[in-house]
Amino acid sequence: MLCPQRLAAPLEHHAIPASLNLTAKSLGPESHTACAVAAVVHELRQPLSSMLCNIQASIRWLDRDEPQVPEALRGLRDCAMLARQMSQISSALLQTYSQRQMVPCTVQLDSVMAEVVAGFAEELACQSIAVNLQVEPGCSVHADSTQLYLVLRNLVSNAIDAISAQHVENRQISLAAYPMAEKTLICVMDSGPGITESYQAFISEPFFTTKADGMGMGLAICETILSRYDTALRHTVSRRGETVFMFAMPSEKACM
C-alpha cells in the first residue's frame, strides 16, 4: 500500500545522530573485479528472473488452442521494459566500478522513490507492508538517477526482509527526504527488529550475509555508489525504535 504524504515530522523526531558527517569521505569497499562481477549478478538476477517469468507466460498464452495474442504481447512488452532497465543498471554499475566520470543530473526524489516502491508492489501487497513516502514535492538532488535508484532499491529490499517476520500490523517502511543547506538527507526506515549488535561492524562488507540465498552485496553496492558522491551510508535507531539507514546527497540548488 503506497501512502504518499508530506513530511509528517521534523528531522529531530528521528534522532539523527550528531556524529553523522555529511561531508566525510566514504569508507566503502574498493572497486575490484570480484565485487564488480558480484554487483552485476546481484542487481540483474531479479529483473532476469522477472523476464523469464514473462517469457514463459507469453509462450503459454500463445500455445493455447486459441492463442491469446494481446496477453502475450503484454508479457513481451514487460520483457522489453525489463531489458531497458537492465541496460541502465549495467551502465550505472560500469560507471561506478570503473571510476568513470559521472554526469549527474536533477533527480526528483518523489519520482525515484515511487519507482522503487512500485518495483516491489506485488511483494509489499503479499506481505501486507505499508509504505510511507515522506518527501516534499519538487525536492531534488544532483545525482545519477539509476545509481540513486539502486541505492534505494537495495535499502528497501533489506527493509522488506527485516520486517517479514513482524506482526502484520507492525510492518511499515518509510522513505523520507530532509532538505538542508547544500545537502539532502535521505532516510529509509523500517519497523523490523533491528540489526544484531555483533553484525553491525560487518553489514557493509562485500559477501557478508545472514540470508540463506543472499549474496552479501546490497549494502556494499550502496557504499560504493555513495563513495562517488563523497558521502557514506549510516544507520541508527529512531526514538520510535525504527531501524534507519541514511545518506546525504548534493542538493540541486547547491550545484547551480
UniProtKB/TrEMBL annotation:
Keywords in alphabetical order: ATP-binding, Kinase, Nucleotide-binding, Phosphoprotein, Transferase
Domain of life: Bacteria
GO CC terms of this entry: plasma membrane
GO MF: ATP binding; phosphorelay sensor kinase activity
SUPFAM superfamilies the record matches: ATPase domain of HSP90 chaperone/DNA topoisomerase II/histidine kinase
The Histidine kinase domain, residue ranges: 39-253
Entry EC number(s): 2.7.13.3
Catalytic activity: ATP + protein L-histidine = ADP + protein N-phospho-L-histidine
Designated name of the protein: histidine kinase
Lineage: Bacteria, Pseudomonadati, Pseudomonadota, Gammaproteobacteria, Pseudomonadales
